[in-house]
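Q: Give me the 3D complex with iron/sulfur cluster.
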Amino acid sequence: MTFTSLDTVMIKQRWIPNRPHWSYSQLSQYLRCPLQYYFQRVVGLPIRFTPSGMALGSAVHHGLAVYHRDLQLGRQMSAHQVQSAFIEAWQAAENGRPMQFRGGESRNGLVEKGVDLLETYLKEPPPTDIVAVEEPMVVPVTTSNGEILEKPLVAIVDLLCRTQDELKVVEFKTSGRKMSENETDTSMQASCYVQAVQDRFDGPVSVRYTVLVKTKTPQVQHIETVRTDLDISRVGDVIHTVERAINAGAFYPIESAFNCSGCPFFKPCREWRGTSQTRALEHVGETTTEPNSC
Ligand code: SF4
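A: Here is the predicted complex, encoded as structure tokens.
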């Protein structure tokens, strides 16, 4: 096993370079709900529980990373070893924050689901010519006007492989349903990854989303997408605009079942009155766990 610490369970969320930077997760959080971004990244409210879906996804990613790193070294782990890595990562998450389950979910049912998802993926032909596994790449952010922003973008791709004609970024998702072509073609995440890989390596880059679908009988979906220079400069324009919005203090809620179910800041959000940083700061020292039950 090449990972030496179970703290890497959430490597994508936790990896921080020495200088201020943008990541796709920061950008997407602001675009999804600016108030949630504010509570987490401006005020620094503690996150008191881990949504079960996030814990499952992180632990599955850990199992996949361990498997792919071993392949990169010319070895191949057994399904049992990969599943053990997943279970260790799940247990590490359990030993951290309390876990919040959705209605109808059980701890053992989710662990079984993760094991089944990995078993299904491991029946696929293993990836070859692996170039990188969860490797952070730092890339300057440039707008369509050629302006280079102060903060770079840090992208951590799940898997990067070399094919005969190009480099292929493989991004893994665990989801209750398959992704549509429209979703992958408009995903800013894919644009961020292509930008980062193009900056580091020569040649064309494409993206494959590999979705481990949490249906009763798990499925694996592969869906390909490409990006143009226009898509990539659009990322720079979006980041530039989001930076200006943040500097102007534009933090507002975007309420939806998708956003708010499992949001760790449900309580301070209910108390938010438009501008009140003071009310939010009252939650910094709280010790109780009061997750949203939506
Ligand atoms: S509860 Fe919903 S609207 Fe409020 S911060 Fe969380 S995601 Fe945003």
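A quick observation: The chain has one domain: 6-247.
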